[in-house]
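Field log, afternoon session.

UNIT: design team B
ACTIVITY: writing a sequence onto a fixed backbone
BACKBONE:
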């Protein structure tokens, strides 16, 4: 092994981003970290000035001109992409045998991590780059922890908000959610219909079969209501056995009557809870935002409540429109609102 080879082995430990060039400018050895910047392009045998472009000092295009800069700082960059910039120092070898270009700590730490995924293991143990890499890694870890914490906080906030707007027993929206949605519809001047539904004979189920049976009936009723409405419709439980449907952009009486009839028919079917039969029905009142000046949703809800009262008064298990107070039993021919 020649003295030059021994020196190159030593340089791999002390400054793993070095280039050993001969008197003609041909690359004889490169440090392992520098080679990582071009893992698929062996540098040994290449012409140094064909591989690197000298930025400072300028106008250096020959080996003698390069050797004339010995002892001074170099600024260079790769000629191919990515054109990573490097800083270094050139030191001539004895007997005009060439030179060593030391590029250790000459690469931007950002480039080292972002473009080449270099780590502290790629630098000498005494290189300041290690300290900077530790800072970069610590910053990355802190940012990742911060992102993770933010995601958890956002998830918790969304969960809390969802819980605040959800009826825990049925999974439907609650009164607060209904108020929020109706307020938005009024502000956006959207057309909508409100159905107010009350379960008939629900108190009897609670009194005779117990609250567990009553809860079961409410949950089954909620499932039926969701199945008979569109995905974008709102179904809210606003009281013990009271529900409100919000139908955005749906004010066609015939369509609304069809929905009400299907819900009434299905809720009349007996439900079985722990071997006991639970029987309820539903009375429904409907009002349209187009029947009012569309400035106060409470007025529309009050109208639906009045229609519900008429449905109760007319024998229950029927549907009544506000403004056309005629009971319409389930599965009957419904007269649309004039």
């Amino acid at each position: 092994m020649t003295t030059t080879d021994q020196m190159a082995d030593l340089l791999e430990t002390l400054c793993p981003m070095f280039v050993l060039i001969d008197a003609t400018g041909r690359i004889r050895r490169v440090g392992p970290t520098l080679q990582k910047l071009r893992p698929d392009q062996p540098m040994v045998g290449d012409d140094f000035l064909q591989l690197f472009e000298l930025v400072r000092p300028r106008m250096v295009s020959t080996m003698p001109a390069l050797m004339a800069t010995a002892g001074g700082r170099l600024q260079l960059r790769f000629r191919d992409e990515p054109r990573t910039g490097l800083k270094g120092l050139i030191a001539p070898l004895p007997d005009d045998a060439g030179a060593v270009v030391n590029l250790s700590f000459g690469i931007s730490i950002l480039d080292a991590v972002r473009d080449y995924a270099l780590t502290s293991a790629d630098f000498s143990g005494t290189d300041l780059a290690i300290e900077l890499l530790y800072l970069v890694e610590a910053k990355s870890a802190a940012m990742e922890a911060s992102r993770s914490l933010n995601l958890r906080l956002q998830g918790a906030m969304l969960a809390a908000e969802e819980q605040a707007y959800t009826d825990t027993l049925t999974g439907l929206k609650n009164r607060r959610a209904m108020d929020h949605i109706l307020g938005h519809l009024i502000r956006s001047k959207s057309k909508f219909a409100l159905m107010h539904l009350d379960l008939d004979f629900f108190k009897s189920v609670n009194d005779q079969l117990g609250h567990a049976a009553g809860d079961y009936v409410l949950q089954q009723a909620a499932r039926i209501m969701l199945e008979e409405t569109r995905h974008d419709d709102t179904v809210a439980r606003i009281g013990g056995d009271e529900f409100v449907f919000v139908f955005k952009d749906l004010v066609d009486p015939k369509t609304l009557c069809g929905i009400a009839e299907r819900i009434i028919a299905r809720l009349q079917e007996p439900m079985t809870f722990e071997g006991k039969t639970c029987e309820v029905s539903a009375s429904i009142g409907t009002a349209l935002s187009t029947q009012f000046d569309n400035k106060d949703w409470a007025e529309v809800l009050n109208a639906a409540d009045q229609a519900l009262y008429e449905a109760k008064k007319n024998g229950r298990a029927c549907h009544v429109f506000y403004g056309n107070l005629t009971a319409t039993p389930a599965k009957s021919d419904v007269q649309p609102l004039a």
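LOG NOTE: Confidence is low (pLDDT under 50) at residues 325-338.
NEXT ACTIVITY: expression trials, pending approval
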